[in-house]
Amino acid sequence: QLQLVESGGGLVQPGGSLRLSCAASGFTLDYYAIGWFRQAPGKEREGVSCIGSRGGSTNYADSDKGRFAISRDNAKNTVYLQIDSLKPEDTAVYYCAAHKSKTCPGTPTHPSDLTYEYDYWGQGTQVTVSS
Q1: Mind listing the pLDDT tens digit for each residue in 88-105?
Q2: Neighbouring residues of 113: CB distance < 8 A, sequence distance ≥ 6
């Protein structure tokens, strides 16, 4: 069974950090670009970041540049999203998704917001930033 599982979310104070993980089972991530999305209550799901299949290319939403860092360890079949200097507006459910291509959809400098471009999705992990 092909599956993506996110973990690492939780309740954190403003200014804190989290590292989210996206682990794949039932398939290898080697041939997939992986994107992170988030969806806040009452809002559309938006692209946060994406990393190419070999990790050589990454992109980030403009609002997140400098605070977010995406990485991958294909040997562990896992992709990570490090989030620093967390803000209350980062509160959302964070999802990872697999795109069956070496390169990320969207532009070289901005991840796609188009969920239909991704083939597999995780169930999401809640991130809540509050004091």
Answers
A1: 999 999 999 999 999 999
A2: 37, 44, 45, 46, 47, 106
